[in-house]
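Expect chain and fold; thus:
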Amino acid sequence: MNIKNTTTIFIVDDNKTFSLALKFSIENNFKHLFIKTYSFATGEKCLEKIMELMPELVILDYNLSTEFSGAADGLDILNKIKINNVETSVIMLTSNNKIDVALNSFHHGASDYIVKDENQFKKINDSIAKIFTNKELNFQKKEIAKQAIDITNKERTFQNEEKEKRAAELIIINIQKAEVEKAKYIAEERNKNITDSINYALRIQQAKLPRMEEIYASLPQSFVLFKPKDIVSGDFYFFHKSASTMGKIGEGLIFIVAADCTGHGVPGAFMSMIGSEQLEDAVSNNSHTSEILKHLNKGIKNSLHQSSNEESTRDGMDIAICAIDTENMIIQYAGANRPLWLIRKDQTTVEEIKGTTKAIGGFTEDEQHFDSHELKLNKGDTFYIATDGYADQFGGDVGKKLMTKKFKEILLSIQHQSMQDQQTHLNDFIENWKAEKEQVDDILVIGMRL
């Protein structure tokens, strides 16, 4: 690097063994640089030296009170580092991957956020390399700008009017070229950073979703068609197997959910992760679908601090939940703006059981009741829950919406197929339907046959 002869790095972690191992890893990975590392067990010790040594980078643990009770946490130290020198880059380390920890770190000025795991040193070294590269690029830009100013000053001393004219034209061209290159670089870096962040959010979201193998092990004749509009999704599915009992339903309940959160992409994904956590809590504390949705509604409103105040958020979700007793062939369904569709064996009509016409969260009252419906099924009966993305997709010969009526007709036409073949058929149909058109919303369809 050309920024200065020696690059100073602070490691702030109350785990001495980890700090020493990280020091050796950094020095081994960046042998070509003159790096000086300093280790501190607390943030307070780090701040005592920061103005004297002016580090380019601080690697800071989020939780610094494990060994030293009362020590300031990582966010407090991060704020003080940025007050002393906003140019100092900070990599925040943590032992958990909670999304709110990551968001807080970036909000307070962290350059990166890394979870301690088996790949921690590689991720830290990759992040350091990226930070050093960006610093070097910024340094080079400043040098180029300085050289351009020097050239401009020299050109102004030319007495020949024609030479001054040509020099001015050349300066303008160079400046324009530099601006274009600068704008291109900034756009590329922003797009890359945004894409990297979204892909990281995708890994977190995928970790929260249930594994397909677990669903198919309990419901072998089922499918989950999940097609996010963007990299991450505002739709999510949920699966939970319980040993609780509920009315006539016997032991061994299986809960399955299709949920559609406000928005799609990154905003929808944040809502889906909040919804998934609140739903896990609701199912753990209730076995009746009506009470689960009531519990979920309160949990979302409390989590988002929603009230009658006009300034509070109105985000929420539409949802369909089924509690399945496979032994007694009974399902209990409840919904918030999303129905359940039932096609009985050898029948040519779709029975629609409608949910309560209220969303989860937002304007919905805290004590809102959600109707529950208990259905007795026979072998070969098939039922579906879905979000609105499939029926709302534009396409076809005239570019119109598919619509719910057409969706039901498709489901009736494939009843002779296995559930896995139904999933393939539905996926192929919607792809052919939209053709070159953009997908307008996240798509989630869940089908089950007992």
About this structure: Confidence is low (pLDDT under 50) at residues 246-250.
